[in-house]
Amino acid sequence: MSFRGPxxxxxxxxxxxxxxxxxxxxxxxxIYQGDWLVPESNGRPYSYSNFVLSHDGRVSFSTPGHEGGGxxxxxxxxxxxxxxxxxxxxxxxxxxxxxxxxxHEHQWTAEFIFPNDSADFGALxxxxxxxxxxxxVIVTGSGRINPEATIFSDPSFRVLIATSDVGLxxxxxxxxxxxxxxxxxxxxxxxxxxxxxxxxxxxxxxxxEGGPRLYASLIRANLLDEEFLTLSPVVVGSSDSNQRxxxxxxxxxxxxxxxxxxxxxxxxxxxxxxxRTAWS
Length: 280
Hints:
Shape: globular
């Protein structure tokens, strides 16, 4: 492997003591300035998320053509490289239907977001006994999706549409060529989905890339082990007429709740901070 990286190494500010698991090759540890240990599966996949958060706590401008995280990160190369690394170690990438609607040309692979290191991220997947591309998992309770999405027309992608009993027929009516469509209950039961990803699709690692409502549902179901969170200096703002989502939407927790994100590491590149946290 001969990774080009994002232009400079990350600066490690703090990291908790490692707890065991499969680490990164030495070349990646040099760029990342430390390790990221993926633990052994314990009955369900190791589940992690990756988001970029603006200085004022928003994850999207929610403006046509600018819904994705790239505008929030200011298309920062360290953020894009770390996103590629997260995808390179994922057996499946899970996104909500709204993310698919707004980013219909996107492909949830390392190569798509950081093509300069595509060959080496592919070699990393091979060394960790992963399929060439992650299983693309679309979660939609209604069954409504964007049928023009690139991943549906490219036969090299394995696609799973995870829907509800009602959404099953809606999704099937699109007559798409390559996705598998499966109901996971009267509402999409994420616990059943993640169990199926392990038992039926041989997924040991699953990455969630949004949106905020799916992320909130995973937290509510206690299905997230760790998260990567980029804190960007970009300011997004929000108004009554133009509301921009935060990291969690659709879940209002009570004061004094015991949910905590425990800091695992802090890295820096310029004015961007890169946090990794463990959920408890």
